[in-house]
Write a structure and sequence with these properties.
The protein is mainly alpha-helical and about 425 residues long. It has three domains: about 130 residues, no CATH class; about 130 residues, Helix Hairpins (Orthogonal Bundle); about 110 residues, Rossmann fold. About 65% of the residues lie in helices and about 5% in strands. The chain has 14 helices and four strands. Strands 2-1-3-4 form a four-stranded parallel β-sheet, with helices on both faces. Helix 6 packs antiparallel against helix 7. It is elongated and about 125 Å long.
């Protein structure tokens, strides 16, 4: 018992995530519509609570039953699992929060009347990456078999390992690229310094050889004046020719060294530029993923238990009262995106965007819309060019999306529109009637 708050203290359990020896499904006494969380085997509680609720949602719910001030996310998770297995009030609160949060998915799966269709729906959710709602709806479905529940449990368990391994691999690659970039720049600096030293050494050698030739010519001239003999003159000329040949050979060697050093420096600069471009691309990709994750997290927090009455979000400001046309994309993502737009006061329509659709239908749909969004990974290039020409001709704002997921859509509309993001058609120039 916590002395300050009067609530039960957190139970520091470390074994809630370990599977029990026996795991059997118990659906006796369940309501006619769906299985209750209290009737589900308690071995599923850890994965359901950790997967289907965010840490903020779970912390707020557990705070109603015990003191979570200063507790870590892991301790809150363990306490939620322990309370769910011991306190029916906590189990009912979790059931209500999960049903409310994943109501659209539950409604969609309620139309399925056999285990095969339910298993196919779970496979589709795995491929699309829409795990939390599908996991909860599948586990609590009245037609879910023990085998299907165990299968979904195993898929979620392995997915957590795969996500952690992928994040660690990306971080290791980014660190390795930064290390290689620094090493190449250091090598480039050394090559440039060495090239400068070789050029200075060559210039000194040439100057000394010229000075030696001048002194030799002066000495030969003085000797010729003192002893004007033909034999001595021939020896002096041969010596002068040999000195000239040695100077020319030395100059050729130094020139070759300088050229090789310059080639090595150029190659090092090119490699450093390539690595820097790759590093910038990875950083931009990481920033885009961060924006999408932040937008998704913001949407997850806007449920009934956390919404602030009268508060206006970026999505409200960009979507409320707007007509949104979505071109292309995946059919499985459309219900969630449509629900997001309508929840924030907008109107939503979708166009397939393929070449098989008539151009007149697309132009008519664009003329209806105020904003046109399309995922660049789920629409062909020719359709994208045609869509941009129509939007520019009709002066309709278009928003290219990195992917067809709802997180990317929410991130694109979570900030003020800018020209750099393709937020609208260019102004101040004429548009070609044929090519846009």
């Amino acid at each position: 018992m916590d002395a300050a708050s009067g609530r039960p203290a957190l139970f520091n359990a470390a074994g809630c995530c370990e599977p029990a020896e026996d795991c059997k499904d118990s659906e006796d006494g369940a309501p006619a519509g769906r299985v209750r969380l209290a009737d589900l085997d308690t071995n599923f509680y850890c994965s359901v609570i950790g997967t289907c609720l965010t840490t903020a949602e779970l912390r707020k719910l557990v705070a109603r039953f015990c003191d979570v001030a200063g507790a870590s996310d892991l301790e809150v998770h363990h306490e939620a699992v322990r309370l769910a297995t011991q306190d029916t009030a906590v189990t009912r609160a979790l059931q209500k929060a999960l049903d409310h949060r994943h109501a659209p998915v539950i409604q969609r799966l309620s139309k399925m009347h056999d285990a095969a269709a339910l298993a196919a729906s779970w496979e589709e959710a795995l491929r699309q990456g829409e795990i939390p709602g599908a996991y909860w709806a599948a586990l609590m479905h009245r037609k879910a078999t023990p085998e299907l529940r165990q299968r979904a449990f195993g898929d979620v368990h392995m997915l957590s390992h795969l996500v952690g391994a992928a994040n660690r691999a990306d971080i290791r690659r980014l660190v390795a690229l930064e290390h290689d970039n620094a090493e190449l720049r250091e090598r480039l600096d050394r090559h440039l310094i060495r090239s400068q030293e070789l050029m200075e050494e060559r210039d000194k050698t040439i100057a000394s050889q010229k000075q030696a030739l001048i002194e030799a010519e002066a000495g030969n001239a003085r000797g010729a004046m003192l002893v004007p003999d033909a034999t001595d003159l021939a020896h002096a000329m041969r010596a002068r020719a040999e000195e000239s040949e040695r100077a020319a050979a030395l100059i050729a060697v130094q020139t070759g060294r300088r050229e090789r050093a310059e080639q090595a420096a150029v190659a090092a600069v090119a490699e450093a530029n390539r690595l820097e471009e790759e590093l910038e691309h990875l950083r931009a990709h990481a920033i885009a993923l961060g924006r999408e994750l932040a937008a998704a997290e913001a949407q997850l927090k806007l449920n009934a238990s956390e919404a602030v009455p009268g508060a206006e979000t970026d999505l409200d400001r960009q979507l409320q009262g707007r007509r949104i046309l979505y071109v292309g994309g995946r059919p499985s993502s459309m219900p969630a995106i449509r629900d997001l737009v309508q929840r924030h006061g907008g109107e939503f329509r979708r166009h397939g965007g393929g070449l098989e659709d008539r151009a007149g239908l697309l132009a008519s749909a664009v003329s209806w819309a105020e904003v046109v969004a399309f995922p660049v990974d789920c629409i062909d290039h020719e359709s994208v060019d045609n869509l941009k020409r129509i939007c520019m001709r009709q002066q309709v704002r278009y928003v290219p999306l990195r992917s067809a997921g709802i997180g990317c859509f929410a991130a694109a509309f979570s900030g003020p529109p800018t020209e750099a993001d393709g937020a609208g058609p260019p102004t101040g120039r004429s548009i070609c009637p044929r090519h846009g």
